[in-house]
Write a structure and sequence with these properties.
By secondary structure, the chain is mostly helical. The protein has helices at 16-31, 37-58.
Length: 61
Amino acid sequence: MNIRQVLEISSDFNELPRVRRFLHKFCNTYAGERFDEDHLAQMVLADNEATVNNYGACLPR
């Protein structure tokens, strides 16, 4: 079963809590036992890095 959900965010640190809630809800709803807390923490960390990297790319040089 393929399940896809989309969350659009801006490159803003203030979006990170919203993204974490989205990931937790998605994993708890659809992934079930396939994602334990360690896997979820890795996903949140990857998202944090992606958001921060994109945010940094938007800053004036």
